[in-house]
Amino acid sequence: MIQYYAWLAGRSLRRNPVLTALMVAAIALGIGASMTALTVLRAMSGNPMAHRDDRVYRPQVDNWSPSNAYDQYGNPPNLMTYQDAMALYRAQQATRQAAMFPNFVPVEPENPEVKPFQAQVLYTHGDFFPMFDVPFLFGGGWDRRADDGNARVVVLGKALNERLFGGENSVGRRVRMDGEEYTVAGVIDAWDPQPKFYEISSGAFNDVEEMFMPFGIGVEKERTSSNNNNCWSDPGSGYANWLASECIWMAFWVELPGRAAAAAYKDYLDGYVQEQKSAGRFPRPLNNRVSSVSEWLAERRVVPRDAQTQTWLAFAFLLVCLINTVGLLLAKFMARASEIGLRRAVGASRRQIFTQFLIESGAVGMAGAVAGLLLTWLGLAGLRSLYGNGAIAQVAVLDGGMVGITVVAAVAASLLAGLLPTWRACRVAPALQLKSN
Hints:
The chain is of the alpha+beta class.
């Protein structure tokens, strides 16, 4: 019976191609606009560490100016000083801990056909890789001894390994950078957490760094962060003064066994800051935090308010399109009152009439889903073209999940729009229609 109703629906839709096209276009426009906005919002609202949200934490200590809070919301600084990051790292109070800051390194390929170039590097500790579940294509990271000895090792991203070694297993191979030879310890597989939670200061939706080196090498080379260096007091001249200053420029993350351990780590932070206060630092009241990744992303307001507003406006447009579709379906179904009356007179129940016309509404939704997917794809392509390398352009990609959501949303919207017209159709009185004809 369902197949028969589907055949009737197709026949009915072909009978009035202009009206059918208008209904499909209304559904497609509303779905295309709302799914384009939802795709961007969904990607920006993601938490790439959701599976470890109770284990990976971002400690923050408030070393900022006694006269001004760090920001208008009263949050502690989003980065740490070198001396605080190193003190927390050396204390080893967490299961794993890693400080980090980005910069660039000149690479001198052994292949004479590849010209020297600058590659983005993240100086960090070896715990970075297991703490963030970084997948490896070849080899792995480095251990604590390599951190302590500033071993000349490097972990390459997949793209950089392809550029330097043609994608081969390069573990153990040598790469000359910054006038020194480094040994490849591992090659990271495809890994692109969005947002890039661990180093938001360089852009929440920027690409992952091309390579990773032990943290101490960056300090030994007297590097600072290539992205964010903020001071509330004059650090003085020279790198040693910079390291001893109150300038914030590095991220720090820890892995803890659970939320109870996170509360204990917060107590440890408070104790550490109290000790520093006695040494004349941390002039502000205690304002330390230990945030999970989801809490950290919320605090940093990674999702722009504009993206949320645009999504609400897009769904409002979808509602307007549905109202228009309701009117078109109502006109179409009521024009068939004599047909409905005849079917009722020969024995069709109201339930059968309701099912038939609801299937016809669903057929409009399926056609709208196909056209809506095309419009969503075009909308996302337009955003990528409009925003270039911006954050929105990075996440404006239609994945399999959004394809499924788009189809389900289009069919559900059309069925919702068809409820009133279908109910009116099954309420047609057969005797009145037969008499009038």
